[in-house]
C-alpha cells in the first residue's frame, strides 16, 4: 500500500472515530458534563476565599425552623407533582387507573427524575413500571407524561408572568427596561395563558400525529393545571427562599424568576438534579458567591428537595417491586429469598456506587490528625501515600463497576468484591478511616452472599460505560473535586506541592490523587467512546451440517434464509431443531421461529431467551407465524403484527380467466420481445456468476439504498451457489434472475433475490412470476410463497393499539419511503392466501428500541439504516 493510501486509511479511521463520538446520543451527555464543569468553575471563582470549614459551620448553623419550613414547602411541591399525573390520567385513561396509583407514579417519577436528571429517560420508564401494573401500555404512559409536562409548562409561564407584573424592577437584566415594559411582558404572558384556556374551552382539542392522538385538556382542566403547576413552582422556590439569609434574598417575585431560570438551566444540562448548574445560576443571580451561608442554604436545599425525596422514592419503589413479585414468591417453593434476589442487583449497584463516592470524598478531605499520629508510628509514609491514591482510583473503578452489577454480570460482582476489600484496606492504611472501611466490608459481604443473583456472562468489555454513564461519572468527579478545592483553598499553590510528601500533606495528596483520577477517567472515557460496541454485519458464518439437514426436511421455504450466512445458530441438544438470530444493540433477534421438530423448537425458544438474559440482552422473535404465539405470550412478550405473507395454491392456479389477463399479456409480450425463461441447476450457477453480477450491479445503480440482509437475501456469490436460479434471457444474454427456494416434499416453492436489467422490458417481472408459478405447478409443488407484505392487514380502528394505528398510517402514506400498498396490490393479483406475521418482543419503552435494532440488522448497521 502506498504512503498516500495508508494516510487516507488512517484519516478515514480517525474520521469514523470522530463521527462516533459526535453522535447525538454521545454528544448530549458530553455537553451536560461540560456544563457542570463550567458551573463548578463559576462556583469556585465566585466563592472567593471561602473555606470548606466555613460552609460546614454555616450548614450546622441553619435554623431548624427554616429547615422545617423548607421541608413543608417541599411536601407541597411534590403533592402538586402527584396531581400532575392525577389530572393526566383522568384525561388520558378515564377510570382505568386509580387516583392513588396516579399520584404515587407522579411523586415517585418526579422524585427520581429530578434527582438523577435525564427526565424523559428516567421518569418515563419509572412511570411505566408503575402504570404497567394496572394495564397501561407505553403509548398511554407517553400521553400521561406529555400532559404532565404541559401542566408544568403552563404553571411555569403563569408564575413568571405574575412575577413580571408584581415586581418587574428587581429582575436582573430586565431591570434595565422600564417598569412599563416589564409589566407589559407579564400581562402578555398571562393573557396568552387566558387565550389558551379560552381556546380549549370552545371544544375538544387534540394533536394527531402518525395515528397517535394526544388529547389536550378542556378549559376547566387547563385552568386547574395552571393553578397546580404554579403551586408546584412557587412551593419549590419557597423551599429555597426560606433557607436564604434575609439580607441576601430579594423580593419573592424576583426570586421566583431567578429560580425558574436556574431550574431550566439545570434541566437543559441533564446533570443529576442540575447539580452545580442550579447553584452557579443562583449564586450569579443573587450576587452572593462570597457568602458561605448562601452556599450552605443551597446545600441544605439540595438535601431537602432532592436527596430526601430520592431516598424515600427509592424505598417506596423497592416496596412496590417487592409487592408485585409476591405472587411469584408464593409459587416458588423452597425459594425463601426470591424477593430479596429480585432487588439485590439494583440495590448492590446503588451501594457500590455510593461506596465509590465515599472513597473519593474521603480522599478529597483532610485526614484526622489524631489518627494520622497513630498511623505514623506503625506504617512507613510511602505506604500511606500510595494507599491514598489507590483508594481514590478504587473509588472511581467502583463507580464504573456499578453499571455491571445492575446488569447482573458475574464478573462485575467478583471484581467489585475485590475492589471493596482493597478499598477497605486502603482506607485503613491512608488514615485509619475505620468507618468507611466498615461500610465497604458490609457491601462486600452482601455481594458475597448473593452469588446466584449475578448470573450473566460478561468480560471486561461489558463494563465500558455508556455515554450517559460517563456523564454521571464526570459530574461526580467534578463535584467531589470542587469539594476538595474548597477544603484546601487556604493552601497557596506552588509547583513544589506536587513533590511534598509528609504525614500532614493533605493538599499535595489531594492534588496527586486528582491528577491520577483525571488520567484514569480520561483513559476510560476515550476507550468507551472509541471502542463502543457496534454490531454491523458479522462475517460469513459457516453453516452447520445439522442446519443443512433440517433445512432439507423443512416444509416451508423461508428458513432457507439461514444459508445467507449472516446469522448465528442455536441448535437443540437432540439436533432436532435450530434457531437463527442476529445481535444488534442489546437485542438478540431471531429470524423466524424455530425450524424442525415442534416440541424441540418450543424448548429451544426458552433456551434462547435464557441465553439472551445471561448476556444482559433482550430476546425478540421477528417474522414469526401464529403457531408459536402461546409460547411467546408465556414470556410476557408483546405481540406486534408486522405484515402478512402471501401464498398461492398452485394446484388450482391458472393463467386463464379475466383475473389473470395481465399475466397472460405479460407472458405473450415477453415471448414476442424474444425473452426466454429457463431454470439453471445450482451446479451451473458458478459459471454464470459474471452475468448475474452485471445484472445485479445495473439494478443496484437505480436504487438509493444498499444491499440488505438478515431477513432479505443479498447478492453473495456463495449464497447464490446454494440454489437453482431462474433466469430471463434476451438474445442469449441474462437480463433478469431470481434464486429459487425449494422446501421438502414439494410443499412450497419461492424466490428470494430478484434482480433485472432496467430498460429491457416493461413486462419482464410479471412474465417472470407467471412462468415461475406455472413451472412450480408443473413440478408438483402445492404452494408458491410470494413473500411478505410489510404492515399489511393491521387493524385500523380507534380502539386498536398504537402500533396498529401507526403502522396503518405508514402503510397508507409512506409511499415515499417504501411502496407498501403497491407491493400488496401486486401480490393480491395472484389471489393468494394471506397469513399474518408477527414480532414478539418486550413491551413498553423497550419496543421502539427493538424495532430500531431489527431495522439495523436488516440494513447492516445504524448508519446504513439512515441511508436506506
Describe the protein.
The chain is an alpha+beta fold and 868 residues long. Among the domains are: 64-240 and 293-322, no CATH class; 339-530, no CATH class. It is 60% helix and 11% strand. It contains 31 helices and 14 strands. Helix 3 (52-60) packs across helix 12.
Structure keywords:
868 residues; alpha+beta; 12-stranded mixed β-sheet; two-stranded antiparallel sheet; 60% helix; disordered N terminus
General shape: globular
Approximately what portion of the residues adopt beta-strand conformation? 5-15%
State the share of residues found in helices, binned by percent.
55-70%
Please report the number of helical segments.
31
Summarize the structure.
With 868 residues, this protein is of the alpha+beta class. 60% of the residues lie in helices and 11% in strands. Among the domains are: 64-240 and 293-322, no CATH class; 339-530, no CATH class.
Secondary structure elements and their pairing?
Elements: H1 3-21, H2 24-46, H3 52-60, H4 64-92, H5 99-116, H6 119-131, H7 138-166, H8 179-201, E1 206-209, E2 212-215, H9 219-241, H10 252-269, H11 277-286, H12 292-324, H13 326-331, H14 338-363, H15 369-376, H16 381-406, H17 410-431, H18 434-449, H19 467-487, H20 506-530, H21 545-552, E3 568-571, E4 577-584, E5 587-591, E6 595-596, H22 598-614, E7 618-624, H23 629-634, E8 638-649, H24 661-672, E9 675-680, H25 685-700, H26 717-720, E10 725-730, E11 733-742, E12 748-756, H27 764-779, E13 783-790, H28 802-813, H29 820-828, E14 833-841, H30 846-859, H31 862-867
Parallel strand pairs: 5-7, 12-13
Antiparallel strand pairs: 1-2, 3-4, 4-5, 4-6, 7-14, 8-13, 8-14, 9-10, 10-11, 11-12
Helix pairs in contact: 2-11, 2-19, 3-12, 4-5, 4-7, 4-9, 4-12, 5-6, 5-12, 6-7, 7-8, 7-9, 7-10, 8-9, 9-10, 10-11, 14-16, 14-18, 14-19, 16-17, 16-20, 17-18, 19-20, 24-27
Amino acid at each position: 500500500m502506498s504512503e498516500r493510501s495508508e494516510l487516507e486509511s488512517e484519516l478515514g479511521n480517525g474520521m469514523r472515530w470522530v463521527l462516533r463520538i459526535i453522535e447525538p446520543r454521545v454528544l448530549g451527555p458530553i455537553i451536560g458534563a461540560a456544563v457542570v464543569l463550567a458551573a463548578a468553575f463559576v462556583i469556585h471563582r465566585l466563592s472567593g476565599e471561602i473555606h470548606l470549614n466555613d460552609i460546614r459551620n454555616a450548614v450546622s448553623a441553619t435554623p431548624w425552623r427554616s429547615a422545617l419550613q423548607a421541608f413543608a414547602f417541599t411536601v407541597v411541591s411534590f403533592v402538586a407533582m402527584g396531581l400532575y399525573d392525577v389530572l393526566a390520567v383522568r384525561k388520558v385513561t378515564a377510570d382505568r387507573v386509580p387516583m392513588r396509583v396516579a399520584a404515587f407514579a407522579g411523586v415517585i417519577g418526579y422524585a427520581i427524575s429530578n434527582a438523577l436528571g435525564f427526565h424523559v429517560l428516567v421518569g418515563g420508564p419509572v412511570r411505566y413500571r408503575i402504570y404497567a401494573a394496572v394495564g397501561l401500555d407505553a403509548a398511554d404512559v407517553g400521553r400521561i407524561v406529555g400532559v404532565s409536562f404541559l401542566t408544568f409548562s403552563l404553571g411555569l409561564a403563569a408564575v413568571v408572568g405574575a412575577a413580571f407584573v408584581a415586581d418587574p424592577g428587581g429582575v436582573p437584566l430586565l431591570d434595565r427596561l422600564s417598569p412599563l415594559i416589564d409589566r407589559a411582558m407579564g400581562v402578555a404572558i398571562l393573557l396568552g395563558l387566558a387565550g389558551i384556556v379560552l381556546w380549549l374551552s370552545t371544544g375538544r382539542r387534540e394533536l394527531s400525529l402518525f395515528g397517535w392522538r394526544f388529547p389536550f385538556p378542556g378549559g376547566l382542566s387547563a385552568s386547574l393545571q395552571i393553578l397546580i403547576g404554579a403551586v408546584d413552582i412557587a412551593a419549590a422556590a419557597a423551599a429555597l427562599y426560606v433557607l436564604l439569609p434575609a439580607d441576601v434574598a430579594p423580593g419573592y417575585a424576583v426570586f421566583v424568576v431567578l429560580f425558574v431560570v436556574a431550574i431550566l438551566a439545570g434541566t437543559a444540562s441533564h446533570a443529576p438534579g442540575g447539580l452545580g448548574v442550579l447553584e452557579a445560576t443562583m449564586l450569579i443571580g443573587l450576587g452572593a458567591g462570597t457568602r458561605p451561608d448562601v452556599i450552605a442554604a443551597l446545600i441544605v436545599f439540595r438535601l431537602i428537595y432532592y436527596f430526601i425525596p430520592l431516598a424515600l422514592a427509592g424505598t417506596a419503589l423497592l416496596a412496590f417491586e417487592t409487592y408485585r413479585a409476591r405472587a411469584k414468591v408464593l409459587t416458588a417453593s423452597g425459594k425463601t429469598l426470591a424477593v430479596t434476589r429480585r432487588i439485590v442487583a439494583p440495590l448492590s449497584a446503588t451501594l457500590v456506587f455510593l461506596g465509590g463516592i465515599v472513597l473519593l470524598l474521603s480522599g478529597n478531605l483532610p485526614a484526622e490528625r489524631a489518627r494520622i499520629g497513630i498511623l505514623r508510628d506503625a506504617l512507613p509514609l510511602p505506604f500511606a501515600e500510595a494507599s491514598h491514591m489507590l483508594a481514590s482510583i478504587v473509588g472511581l473503578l467502583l463507580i464504573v463497576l456499578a453499571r455491571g452489577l445492575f446488569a447482573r454480570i458475574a464478573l462485575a460482582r467478583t471484581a467489585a468484591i475485590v475492589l471493596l476489600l482493597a478499598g477497605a484496606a486502603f482506607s485503613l492504611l491512608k488514615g485509619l478511616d475505620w468507618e468507611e472501611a466498615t461500610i465497604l466490608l458490609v457491601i462486600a459481604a452482601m455481594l458475597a452472599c448473593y452469588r446466584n443473583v449475578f448470573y450473566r456472562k460478561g468480560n471486561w468489555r461489558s463494563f465500558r460505560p455508556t455515554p450517559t454513564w460517563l456523564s454521571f461519572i464526570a459530574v461526580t468527579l467534578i463535584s467531589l473535586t470542587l469539594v476538595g478545592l474548597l477544603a484546601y483553598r487556604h493552601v497557596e499553590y506552588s509547583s513544589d506541592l506536587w513533590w511534598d510528601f509528609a504525614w500532614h500533606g493533605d493538599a499535595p495528596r489531594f492534588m496527586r490523587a486528582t491528577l491520577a483520577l483525571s488520567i484514569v477517567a480520561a483513559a476510560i472515557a476515550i476507550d468507551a467512546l472509541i471502542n463502543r460496541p457496534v454490531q454491523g454485519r458479522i462475517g460469513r458464518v459457516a453453516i452447520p451440517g445439522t442446519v443443512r439437514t433440517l433445512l432439507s426436511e423443512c416444509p416451508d421455504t423461508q428458513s432457507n434464509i439461514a444459508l445467507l450466512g449472516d446469522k448465528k445458530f442455536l441448535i437443540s441438544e437432540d439436533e432436532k431443531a435450530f434457531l437463527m438470530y442476529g445481535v444488534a444493540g442489546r437485542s438478540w433477534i431471531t429470524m423466524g421461529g424455530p425450524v424442525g421438530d415442534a416440541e424441540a423448537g418450543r424448548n429451544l425458544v426458552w433456551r434462547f431467551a435464557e441465553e439472551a438474559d445471561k448476556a444482559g440482552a433482550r430476546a425478540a422473535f421477528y417474522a414469526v407465524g401464529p403457531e408459536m404465539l402461546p409460547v411467546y405470550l408465556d414470556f410476557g412478550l408483546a405481540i406486534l403484527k408486522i405484515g402478512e405473507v402471501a401464498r398461492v395454491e398452485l394446484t388450482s392456479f391458472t393463467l386463464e380467466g379475466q383475473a389473470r389477463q395481465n399475466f397472460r399479456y405479460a407472458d405473450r409480450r415477453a415471448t414476442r420481445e424474444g425473452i426466454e425463461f429457463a431454470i439453471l441447476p445450482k451446479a451451473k450457477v458458478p459459471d454464470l456468476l459474471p452475468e448475474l453480477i452485471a445484472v445485479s450491479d445495473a439494478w443496484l445503480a437505480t436504487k438509493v439504498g444498499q444491499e440488505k440482509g438478515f431477513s432479505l437475501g443479498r447478492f453473495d456469490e456463495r449464497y447464490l451457489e446454494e440454489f437453482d436460479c431462474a433466469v430471463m434471457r434476451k438474445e442469449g444474454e441474462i437480463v433478469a434472475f431470481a434464486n429459487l427456494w425449494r422446501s421438502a416434499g414439494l410443499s412450497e416453492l419461492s424466490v428470494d433475490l430478484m434482480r433485472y436489467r432496467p430498460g429491457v422490458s416493461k413486462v419482464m417481472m410479471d412474465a417472470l412470476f407467471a412462468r415461475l408459478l406455472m413451472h412450480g405447478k408443473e413440478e408438483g409443488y402445492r404452494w408458491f410463497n410470494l413473500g411478505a407484505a410489510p404492515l399489511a392487514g393491521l387493524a385500523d380502528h380507534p380502539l386498536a393499539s398504537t402500533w396498529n394505528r401507526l403502522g396503518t398510517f405508514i402503510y397508507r402514506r409512506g409511499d415515499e419511503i417504501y411502496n407498501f400498498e403497491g407491493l400488496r396490490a401486486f401480490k393480491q393479483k395472484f389471489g393468494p392466501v394471506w397469513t399474518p406475521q408477527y414480532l414478539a418482543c418486550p413491551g413498553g419503552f423497550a419496543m421502539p428500541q427493538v424495532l430500531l435494532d431489527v431495522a439495523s440488522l436488516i440494513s447492516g448497521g445504524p448508519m446504513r439504516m439512515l441511508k436506506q
